[in-house]
Every structure is written in C-alpha cells, then in structure tokens.
Design a protein that fits this description.
The complex is a heterodimer of chains A (246) and B (246).
Chain A lengths: L1 H29 L10 E6 L8 H10 L10 E9 L4 E5 L16 E10 L7 H5 L5 E3 L5 E3 L9 H5 L6 E2 L6 E2 L5 H4 L6 H5 L5 E5 L6 H8 L2 E2 L11 E4 L7
Parallel strand pairs in A: 1-11
Antiparallel strand pairs in A: 1-9, 2-3, 2-4, 5-6, 7-8, 10-11
Chain B lengths: L1 H6 L2 H23 L2 H4 L1 H13 L8 H5 L4 H6 L8 H5 L3 H5 L12 H8 L46 H8 L8 H4 L21 H8 L35
The chains are: A alpha+beta (246), B mainly alpha (246).
C-alpha cells in the first residue's frame, strides 16, 4: 500500500518536473530570434531641446502601467531655476506646466531650463549590488531589470540608487524602474518616451551599431553624465548640461 | 511488510529514516525547486522573457501610414518630429482594430498650449504664443492644420485681422473701394504684420485723384482741394473708412 502511494507520488513528481522543464524551454525559445549579445543600449539627452511638455512622462506611464499619481515615475522632467543670487530650485514639472515657478519673480531669474531624467542603466549599478535576493540584475544588452516575482520589496535598491530612479510600486509592492521599455526595444521599437518626444531631446540607440543617431550625438557634442564621481558609469549621457544640474 | 519492519533492528530503522529524508531532500532540490532558483542564468532568462512579452501600447507613426494620409502631410511640416501618438494617444489597439477603438482627437486649445504657451524655461527659438492674446476663444485647429501647422492657414482677407475696419467700411460710402486701392499690402504682411507693414496714403492729392474738381472720375462728389480743408490732411476730418460727415 505505502509503496504504491510512494510510487504514485514519485510518478507525478517526475511528470510535473518534465512538464515544467518543457515550459521553461518554451519561454527561452521566445527569446531565440532576438540576440542580446549583438546589442548594448544607451541614451543621449539634448538638454537644450527639451520644451518641458511632459509627454514623455505620460507616455511612460501609459506604456508601463506606472501609477498615474505624481509620486511614481520611471522617467520625469525637472525644471531648474537659477536665481541671480545663485539659489537653485528644482521642480518636478509633473506635466502641470501652468503652475510653474511659484513665488519666484521673473526678474530675479538668471536662467531656467528643463532636464529629463530616467534610470541611467549604470554599467556599475549600485542597486544590483545591494539586492539581498538577486532579484535585480544587468542583462547582456546592458539594461537593469527587476524580477518582480522574486523582489521582496525591501527598498534597499531604492535607497542605493544615487539618481532616485527607483520607486516602490504601490500595487505590486515591489521595486519598479525604467527598463528602456525592454519589451519595445527588443522588437526594434524606440522606448515610449522617445517615440512621443516632439523635439528630439531624447536619442535612443545601440552602442554596438556604428552609424546611428546616438553615435552621431556622441561624436558631435561634449557629453556629461550625472554624478560622475560615483563611478556608476551611466549609459545615459547629456549634452549642454548646466553645471548646476545634479 | 509489517513483519519486516518489526523484525528490523532499531538502529537500522533509524538509519532508514535518515536515508529517506536524504532522498526526499535530493528529490526536492532536483525536481520541485524551480530551476530559476537554482541556476542564476535560468533566472535571468526567465525574467528577460517575461519582460519582453509585455504588451506594447504605442504602435509608432509608421503603422498609421498604411491607413491615413495625414502621415504624408505631416512628414514635411513643422510637426514632422511629432509622433501621431503624441497627440492621439496610445493606438496599438486602434491600428489592429480601427472600427472598435477610437483614438483621442484633441481639438481643445489647452492641448496645443501644453507645448506652445510661453514659458521662460523653454529653449529660445521654440515657437511660443501668449494664449490669452493669440486669437483667444478660437480653436487653434480652425487656423492651423495640426498635421502641417506652418504655413498656418494665412487669412487671405484683410478682415480676418482688421474686422472692425472692414465692418465700418462696409456700411460707408467707400464700400465699393477695395482696401488695396488705398493701401499697398506686401504678401508678407499677412504672415508677419508687425514686421512687414502696409502703406498708408501720404498726402491730400491721393484723395484728390477721385474727389478734386479736376478729377476725371465721374460718380464722386467733388471739392476744391485748394480751398476745402486747406492745409489739413483729409483724414484729419474724414475717417477714410467712414468718410461721411454728419
């Protein structure tokens, strides 16, 4: 009797594990026609082209199910205002462009501009190092992604990111961040923010392909990355970046 | 079976339990634990596969070209860098099922002003307007084609911009006179009126062409230029668009 039961259990075990293994293989097959080893993604941002319309923020939320409330962002746009006395204010524009620069008089302003921000997809990502369960990692083609099945929502990575690029998704209770729209770029589509940008302030591209708008951008301009002293080696680079931008 | 168990020495029984637990552990690790927990590479592959299989929402402008002529219209206009979906919203579903899913059609003024309202943080040179002064109350699309905004529908009639004068003249005795009989109007005046100005008659003899006693034109009432109004310009007493005197 016992033996038969044991045999049955053993049988279901073997069967289910082979089926499971088969499923796994199938999932892997999907990725077959895309070869990540042939790509390495990056982005260029032309600060002086950004008009601060916030379309990129909206598009990102639509494409990636980011909650609409104004505290959750995979990408966002900051308004820098530098007053004559040197005081710098930074505002997240939150697409409510009409209520800008509260309490700052026009003639006190020295200069003002917009800076789009997103995950820098660092080559040396501090967020990956701190994850206690290995839920976040860098893909072969250079994008940092989070496995929300494995993420336990401990927020270490959110603390560790020097750019504030991660947030805790309020419904999933897991860390969420920009993936360069991985599901789009692997199909040859640009990230949603790049798709809708009206002024080509964002240039997306493959660092492994020689002739591309991103390659041209990198040749043409003097480039900066954010917080270079941290040695995070960002793959998002900025042209015409004002010295005050942090 | 029972007999066999009772006959077994106690030590052997214990050993058997240890052995069974060991086998169970091996089986657990081998078959029950998902492969992704054991092998980092498989974990990465799975997560990447889930990430890639997520739903695309923005179809990209090329898709629209097959069904909508607006694509060709927009291609060379000032809005050439705007994606269709920057204005019409996420349309992957519409392009697959156009009769069921209706796109947004943003005709309201504050949609355009999101990008075009004057804002000091915007890059200089970006075309901006003051919404409360630029043809208030009228829909932007009644003058500008959103798919080819420039040259904007330049109003051909003077009355589009000089409505008050046109209305006045229409009930005056000068109703039959074209504006251009008295004003020389360069075509550029209709595009940039403040930079390219229309001419204004300079001296009394201009009115005299029709109204002086020497004039060959028959159907006008005549005055003697030498005595009538003397050294004043005619339009210091007669408003040219409504010349009658009570």
């Amino acid at each position: 009797m016992e033996r038969r039961k044991f045999g049955k259990k053993l049988f279901t075990l073997v069967v289910s594990s082979t089926v499971f293994g088969g499923l796994l293989k199938k999932a892997n097959a999907q990725t077959k026609d895309y070869d990540p080893s042939k790509h390495y993604y990056g982005m260029g941002i032309q600060t002086n082209k950004c008009i601060g319309c916030g379309k990129c923020v909206e598009a990102c939320k639509d494409e990636n199910n980011v909650p609409k409330e104004p505290f959750f962002f995979r990408t966002w746009v900051e308004r820098y205002t530098i007053k004559k006395d040197g005081e710098v204010t930074v505002q997240n524009i939150d697409s409510r462009i009409t209520t800008h620069r509260d309490n700052i008089f026009e003639k006190e302003i020295l200069r003002s501009f917009f800076v789009p921000k997103l995950c820098n997809q660092c080559d040396n990502p501090p967020c990956v190092q701190v994850c206690p369960v290995g839920a976040t990692f860098k893909t072969e083609d250079g994008v940092i992604i989070v496995d929300d099945e494995r993420c336990i929502g401990c927020r270490y990575c959110i603390q560790a990111c020097p750019y504030g690029a991660r947030y805790l998704h309020p419904e999933k209770q897991t860390a969420d961040k920009c993936t360069f729209c991985y599901h789009r770029i692997t199909k040859g589509l640009p990230p949603a923010c790049v798709e809708v940008c009206p002024s080509q302030a964002r240039i997306f591209g493959d660092l492994k392909s020689g002739a591309s708008p991103l390659g041209r951008f990198k040749r043409l301009f003097k480039l900066h990355v954010l917080k270079p002293f941290l040695n995070t080696e960002p793959k998002v680079s900025y042209s015409d970046l004002d010295g005050e931008v942090r | 079976m029972k007999k066999f168990l009772t006959k077994l020495p106690e030590q052997a029984g214990r050993l058997l339990i240890v052995f069974i637990v060991f086998i169970a552990l091996v089986l657990l690790v081998r078959f029950l634990l998902p492969a992704s927990l054991k092998d980092h590479n498989i974990h990465i592959q799975n997560t990447v596969a889930t990430e890639m299989s997520r739903q695309v929402r923005y179809a990209g402008s090329e898709v629209c070209a097959s069904c909508h002529d607006e694509y060709n219209l927009k291609k060379n206009g000032y809005h050439k860098n705007l994606s269709c979906e920057t204005c019409h919203g996420t349309l992957k579903e519409h392009s697959e099922n156009p009769t069921e899913i209706k796109p947004l059609v943003p005709r309201q003024r504050d949609f355009c002003t999101r990008c075009h309202a004057f804002d000091p943080s915007r890059p200089t040179g970006f075309p901006q307007i003051n919404p409360s002064a630029h043809n208030p109350m009228k829909a932007c699309v009644s003058c500008h084609n959103p798919h080819d905004p420039k040259p904007p529908n330049v109003p051909q009639e003077c009355q589009a911009c000089h409505a008050e004068i046109a209305r006045t003249k229409a009930i005056s005795s000068h109703v039959m006179l074209e504006c251009t009989i008295c004003h020389e109007v360069p075509t550029q005046h209709k595009v940039a009126p403040r930079n390219v100005k229309a001419s204004i008659p300079a001296e009394r003899e201009f009115c005299g062409k029709c109204h002086s006693t020497q004039s060959i034109i028959k159907e006008t009432s005549k005055v003697d230029l030498a005595t009538h109004g003397e050294k004043y310009l005619c339009w210091q007493c007669h408003y040219p668009h409504m010349p009658e005197v009570e």
